[in-house]
Amino acid sequence: MGFFGFFNKKQNEEQLEQGLAKTKQSVFEKITRAVAGKSTVDDEVLDNLEEVLVTSDVGVDTTLKIIRRIEERVERDKYVSTSELNEILKSEIAALLTENNTQDMTKWELPTDHRPYVILVVGVNGVGKTTTIGKLAHQFKQAGLKVYVGAADTFRAAAVDQLCIWGERVGVPVVKQQMGSDPASVAFDTLQSAKANNADVVLIDTAGRLHNKVGLMNELKKIKDVMKKVLPEAPDEVLLVLDGSTGQNAFEQAKQFSAVTQITSLAITKLDGTAKGGVVIGISDQLKVPVKYIGVGEGMEDLQLFDSKAFVQSLFK
Predict the structure, then answer these.
(1) How far apart are CA 204 and CA 233, in angstroms?
(2) Could you tell me which of 196, 110, 189 has the C-alpha nearest to residue 150?
(3) pTM (2 d.p.)
(4) What pLDDT tens digit does each residue of the chain (317 aa) get?
(5) For FRET with 224, which of 79, 128, 151, 187 sits at 20 to 30 Å CA-CA?
């Protein structure tokens, strides 16, 4: 059974639909206006659809790619009715997400060749990074895994305190040091403790600063180098957390972080409170980095492994 497999699939789908309700309503209303009075998909409908996707935070480049795909469908099939548009959109966007390596993650499992599996979590302050770590720790523990958390954002007392609260709430140990300590030292201590206690998963929080890219790059490189002294393969994953409610700003953050460190996966949070869920499609397409988790609510289980097919189905149902 894959990790997260113990969750009820029907329940996950219901949470996903509820979480994407604002985006879905916004997109549907715009598409309805785009095809009003039209029976076939013509140039005017495509122009209107382009505007719908751009204003839904899909992003210009990704929107143009989707429009080109639909134009090819129209050219190939000669006649495409506006009633078919939703199905065509679902099909093309799902294909795009799959091509960009954002596939059905619901059967993802931890590698079995080594332990612990180390996830370095990055992202600017305020995106829900600490909450994401807490929810992941909870869900890993619910799966029967031994989890350690490292509070390596040593520049903000609030970040360490919040992480410790999550640790107590979830029931996992949080390794910390004094404020202003070297973040790499915290990561080193966390991995040593986790290794000594046969942990399965380690989640390392990092500082959310982007004002000094060189400083951030050096800091992340140092953390990685120190980790390798304990576990040569660490980190197994560099997870970038983004706030979906910020739309294209999330994409800009993703580009900036990608410029300073290799990002291997994405978690996009706060999709339940926004109509900007289309940003998931654009970020995946432009960065070619898999979206692994999405946040669709406040609850512990509202952080879900990303299922591209279910996502598109919920968005254009």
Answers:
(1) 15
(2) 189
(3) 0.89
(4) 345 444 455 566 777 778 888 887 888 788 888 887 888 888 898 999 999 899 888 999 999 999 999 999 888 887 778 888 888 888 888 888 887 655 455 556 788 788 999 999 999 888 999 999 999 999 999 999 999 999 999 888 888 999 999 999 999 999 999 988 999 999 999 999 999 999 999 999 998 776 556 787 888 999 999 999 999 999 999 999 999 888 888 888 888 888 888 999 999 998 887 778 888 899 888 888 889 999 988 888 889 888 888 888 887 76
(5) 128
Q: DSSP letter string over 119-176?
A: EEEE--TTSSHHHHHHHHHHHHHHTT--EEEEE--TT-HHHHHHHHHHHHHHT--EE-
Q: Are 304 and 78 in contact (CB under 8 A)?
A: no
Residues contacting 54, CB < 8 A, separation 6+: 60, 63
Q: Is 192 helix (H, G, I), strand (E, B) or coil?
A: helix
Is residue 30 within 8 Å of 89, Cβ to Cβ?
no
Of 303, 271, 308, which is closest to residue 121 (Cα–Cα)?
303
Compute φ and ψ for 180, nearest 5 degrees.
Answer: 85, 0
Q: Pull the structure tokens for residue 200.
A: 């399965």
